[in-house]
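Dear colleagues,

As part of the handover before I leave the project, I'm documenting each prediction I ran so the next person doesn't have to rerun anything. This entry is a single chain, and its sequence is reproduced below.
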Amino acid sequence: MTCQQAQESLSLYLYGEMEFSLEEEFEQHTAHCALCADALAHERKWHVVMNDAQAGVPFDLLSQCRRELSRELEAESRSAPGPWGRFLESIRPTRWSMQLASAALLVCVGFSAAFMLQRWEPPSSGVMSKVRSIGRGPNGNVEIAVDEVHPRKVSGRADDPSVLRYLIEASRDADDPGLRAESVDWLNKSTGPDVRDALLYSLEHDPNTGIRSKALEGLGRFSNDQIARRSLVSVLEHDQDPAIRGQAIDLLVPGRNAIPNSPQIAGKLQEVMASEPDGYVRQRAQRALQVMNASYETY
């Protein structure tokens, strides 16, 4: 976190409105930056002064208001029009009445929209929740802190369905790369089609190279799976990081006779040898072609 970001977030931090991950970054930054720590101290002092400030109210304010109200009502009763006059005045639009009518209209529209959405919205599959953190419990199991109506903890083995659900959810958290990395680490300790799909999603969509690399490590045990192999070929063709492309090659051809030779895989590796600009990736492709007893050139 930069000094500018920290000083723009002072009030959010003091009011407890900052996201958990950003709050940790903020506290780490102010702990090591004297300038931002001083700005935080001044901001906290200003908040204390503003909270302690009280407007002076005269003791006889209520009696004054009552006297003025009585005078206004008496004056209005003397100049009040007849029944028809009162009716016509009541329907004459004023700025206040127009604002009141507009507010009433917005309230009606809001209630109507909420009613329609509630009527047509499909039933929810469960309570809305947010994974806050993932860690290791005292007995070595994965322990997940989940925010729902109230924060709670879910504990169990990584392959327990109740735990696996939150691990997969956390692996797709768009706002917290640390949470995604921790969840992928735990997913690597489990197995099954849901785990495979979650790792493939991280491999193909996560913008963080380190998390994609972790997902590749976990996909090693799915290297015989055709769905996983198709995704590895796609990564080899489209991923921008040469280390990820090289790691994908190692999974596609892990060792001699480990996986039956595939003309399609050999063809992709030959294309890599012909067009790949990175020497490390070409080296991995060359090793894989040697393992497959295939030529380095395309025909």
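Residues 95-120 form the longest helix (26 residues). The CA atoms of residues 154 and 162 lie 8 Å apart.

All the best with the project,
I.
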